[in-house]
UniProtKB/TrEMBL annotation:
Residues 339-423 form the Reductase C-terminal domain. It comes from Intrasporangium chromatireducens Q5-1. The keyword Flavoprotein applies. One of its GO terms (molecular function) is oxidoreductase activity, acting on NAD(P)H. This is Ferredoxin. Residues 7-320 form the FAD/NAD(P)-binding domain. Pfam families: Pyr_redox_2 (PF07992), Reductase_C (PF14759). The keyword Plastid does not apply. Its cofactor is FAD. One of its GO terms (cellular component) is cytoplasm. InterPro entries: FAD-oxidoreductase/Apoptosis, FAD/NAD-bd_sf, FAD/NAD-binding_dom, FAD/NAD-linked_Rdtase_dimer_sf, Reductase_C. Keywords: FAD, Flavoprotein, Oxidoreductase.
Length: 427
């Protein structure tokens, strides 16, 4: 058993690791137990669908710290053993893991992350139906892409990606660079519809099609067919309108859901995620929860009121630091400006702010040259920027939003003028 005064962090992803690190940075000396269900030390997850899948990064490049570092920080790292049960009161509690280990704690932090949504379709359990969340998933997907590309002497075949979000499009782009035939099925009327502007959706639709990816919008998968000879392998995907798309493999990339099972065991409020306040406190007032398992008050002062669930490495880190401050009695509130990125082949997208309730968009640069910025305004105030191949624009807007600044929309369209020169205090 661990000492009762220990801080238990459930989830060894980026949010959990950042929380443990921030506690040490704040001078907290109490023992920390960091528990993760994967057998590898905490690693950077976003590159799984980018550099790691492409082969330009290895696992050693993704791992944040060697295991010796955890011992030096007095952080007990438990790997490959998920917490399955939690009990607590106002002074502490105990956790039970899948292996039967009991961990007593004084403070509790939930960093349980997300789980991929699954397709509830006939044939979803066939061999060759894949998803992407872990290193093991990425390794398996990489092997399949090599086979589809004919790199191992096989005959190749088509990858069907179900879902036109970031993960699906990043994998589709990498597959095309490897020479794999790809079809993307998106159930709605545009790509990335939940997170980007219609203008950017249109750009990515055209860009992926130029690179040879077949993209079918308003196309819902209803069944995954297997081999008639009964070998259990994927052969095709049936659509709601009767079309059939041949497939040698299927990647399911239809989003993720917050993992809230442990929070529900504790009776915490859950609404699309673990409900927390601006200090990362859950509804019991003593547990903290961080990262993409949470439903947070919108931290962006130029956003729209209400709650949201953010899925990004930046959110995981910033939110974890807020939670660490809360655990040691600090008063910091979570008020970060959200930002995101996506590498889709040779196209790099960087987003600052949140696209919502926009009434004006300024196009800066030339979308046909695949280097441009979309600046989005509400009531004359800059609220978000979507930058494709325009890193300096992204840096300027990100820093400007963090400092409460804006950019005159009338001057913003000229790409010859650096955006950092146009930043002015917001009224």
């Amino acid at each position: 058993m661990s000492k009762p005064q220990a801080t238990l962090v459930v989830g060894a992803g980026q949010a959990g690791l950042e929380l443990a690190t921030a506690l040490r940075d704040l001078g907290d000396a109490a023992p920390i137990v960091l528990v993760g269900e994967e057998p590898v030390p905490p690693y950077d997850r976003p590159p799984l669908s980018k550099g790691y899948l492409a082969g330009t990064q290895q696992l050693s490049d993704l791992v944040f710290h060697p295991e010796l570092w955890f011992a030096e920080q007095d952080i007990e790292l438990v790997l490959g053993d998920a917490v399955t049960r939690l009990e607590r009161d106002g002074t502490g509690g105990r956790a039970t893991t899948a292996s039967g280990r009991v961990i007593e704690f004084g403070r509790l932090a939930l960093a349980t992350g997300s789980a991929n949504r699954q397709l509830d379709l006939p044939g979803a359990d066939l061999d060759g139906v894949l998803d992407l969340r872990s290193v093991a998933d990425a390794d398996r997907l990489g092997e399949v892409l090599a086979r589809l590309a004919g790199a191992d002497g096989a005959n190749g075949g088509r990858l069907v990606v179900v879902g036109g979000g970031f993960i699906g499009l990043e994998v589709a782009a990498d597959a095309r660079l490897k020479g794999v035939e790809v079809t993307v099925l998106e159930a709605t009327d545009r790509l990335l519809g939940r997170v980007v502007s219609p203008e950017l959706s249109d750009f990515y639709l055209a860009a992926h099609r130029r690179r040879g990816t077949e993209v079918l919008l308003e196309s819902t998968a209803t069944r995954i067919r297997g081999d008639r000879d009964g070998d259990g392998r994927v052969r095709a995907v049936e659509l709601a309108d009767g079309r059939v798309v041949e497939a040698a493999a299927v990647l399911v990339a239809v989003g993720a859901e917050a993992r809230t099972e442990l929070a529900e065991q504790l009776g915490l409020d859950v609404d699309g995620g673990i409900v927390v306040d601006e200090h990362a406190r859950a509804s019991d007032g003593v547990t903290v929860a961080v990262g993409d398992c949470t439903s947070v008050p919108n931290p962006y002062t130029r956003g729209t009121p209400g709650r949201l669930r953010l899925e990004s490495a930046q959110h995981a880190s910033d939110h974890a630091r807020t939670a660490a401050s809360t655990l040691v009695g600090g008063g910091a509130a979570y008020t970060s400006v959200p930002w995101f990125w996506s590498d889709q082949g040779d196209l790099q997208l960087q987003i600052s702010g949140l696209y919502a309730d926009v009434d004006r968009t300024v196009v800066r640069g030339d979308p046909s040259a695949e280097r441009f910025t979309l600046l989005h305004y509400r009531d004359g105030l800059l609220v978000a920027a979507e930058c494709v191949g325009a890193r300096q624009d992204h840096i300027a807007v990100k820093r400007g939003l963090e400092k409460g600044m804006t950019i005159d929309p009338e001057a913003a369209a000229d790409p010859a003028v650096p955006l950092k020169r146009l930043l002015t205090p917001a009224p």
